[in-house]
Design brief:
Blueprint (H helix, E strand, L loop, with lengths): L4 H4 L4 H12 L10 E7 L5 H15 L5 E7 L2 H7 L7 E5 H9 L15 H4 L8 E6 L2 E6 H4 L7 H15 L4 E3 L2 H11 L13 H16 L2 E2 L5 H6 L5 E5 L3 H4 L4 E5 L10 E2 L2 E6 L5 H11 L4 H8 L3 E2 L13 H9 L3 E2 L11 H15 L1
Parallel strand pairs: 1-2, 1-3, 6-7, 6-8, 10-13
Antiparallel strand pairs: 3-11, 4-11, 4-12, 5-8, 5-9
Length: 367
């Protein structure tokens, strides 16, 4: 299973190459004159929900109005390659990438989009100007309800303690982690670390989180299942897993429960997150793009898209449609104001892959 949340938490070196390519390309979309093109990486939001929305918009647009065309890419590298032949009108990306593209004069400004963004989201640079936030993916705990029904995971220490007791009694691993980078970012942010997006192995906050995980790796309660932790829970092979919330549309089913990622005791209980939203590429279709944006952020459509995609909504209010089973948790994280959004200058440009590979190797040696 592909990792989607980690890509949302970091600006890859490939993204910087994309920014340079965009900067030197001539302005203007590669799409036909009567079409607004929207490009995105598959899985950054729900493909099916986004396709339904665009189909609905195009059906309502009527004759003479610009329709929206979608183009999905497998990963950042494929998206970057496509920029060699032209630009989209709208790009689904993180708020940090949007800020970096804006600093290179790649993005255009759009006004008149009235969205019910929460106060923390409105404070993010570019919101309502060149960037229009939909939601944010965060790490969550996916559990087998039959095994974890009475378990109390009020903190990271409670999770690891329960895991060690379970393994001591059963001889089986208790949980796994899809992305250690994401877990560390949130845990370090909650503990007030200076740069949670660049984990410092020498800091006391890092050592505290690392020791808790290392003990579980040593006694076998932490399974080292890269990229498929959630699938192991869904298949009944593990009681618990830390997964990205954007994986929930693929993993969640009857018999499973989802809860907030347990954070370290005495922390401030906040989650480090990148917003996903639509950035407007500078070109000749700003007016047509703004028509779609105004429609998307009216009537609770963006809110419904975020929940269907497993994202903590950037907009306030309640969704009118039937909600997926994980919606209550995501809405509670939004309403509690528990997400912290890094600025472009504090979000590291190095890849999380190096951190992930190194830590998995170390934990594998310990086990």
């Amino acid at each position: 299973m592909k990792k989607k949340l980690s890509a949302a938490f970091i600006i890859l070196p490939a993204a910087l190459c994309i920014a340079l390519v965009l900067f030197f390309l001539p302005r203007g979309s590669s799409a036909p004159a009567d079409t607004v093109s929207l490009w995105y990486i598959s899985g950054s939001c729900s493909d099916s929900a986004l396709n339904r929305l665009v189909s609905d918009y195009n059906a309502r647009a009527g004759k003479g109005a610009a329709h929206v065309s979608l183009r999905a890419f497998e990963d950042e590298a494929a998206l970057g390659s496509a920029f060699g032949s032209g630009l989209p009108d709208l790009l689904l990306c993180s708020h940090v990438k949007a800020a970096q593209l804006s600093s290179r004069s790649v993005l255009g400004s759009v006004s008149g989009v009235d969205a019910a963004w929460t106060a923390p989201v409105r404070a993010v640079s570019g919101t309502g100007d060149y960037f229009f936030p939909i939601g944010a993916a965060v790490p969550v705990l996916l559990s087998d309800a039959s095994v974890c029904e009475n378990a109390a995971f009020s903190s990271l220490e409670a999770l690891t303690g329960t895991a060690q007791a379970y393994t001591a009694a059963s001889g089986k691993p208790f949980f796994a982690v899809d992305s250690y980078y994401d877990l560390f970012c949130c845990a370090l942010s909650s503990l007030g670390a200076e740069s949670p997006g660049s984990p410092d192995p020498g800091s006391p906050e890092y050592i505290r989180v690392y020791n808790a995980l290392a003990l579980c790796a040593y006694d076998g309660s932490l399974a080292n299942t890269a990229d498929c932790a959630g699938l192991c829970v869904a298949q009944g092979l593990l009681p618990c897993a830390v997964v990205g919330s954007s994986e929930l549309p693929l993993l969640f089913k009857s018999g499973l429960s989802v809860s907030a990622l347990p954070l370290p005791e005495s922390g401030r209980g906040s989650y480090y997150a990148l917003l996903t939203g639509l950035a407007v590429i500078d070109g000749g279709r700003a007016s047509a793009a703004s028509d779609f944006l105004r429609w998307l952020f009216a009537g609770g459509r963006a809110l419904a898209l975020s929940l269907d995609s497993g994202l903590v909504p950037a907009c306030g209010g309640e969704a009118d449609s039937a909600l997926p089973g994980w919606s209550g948790l995501l809405l509670s994280l939004r309403d509690g104001g528990l997400l912290l959004y890094p600025t472009a200058d504090t979000c590291p440009a190095n890849s999380a892959a190096g951190f992930e590979t190194h830590l998995r190797r170390v934990l594998d040696l310990i086990s």
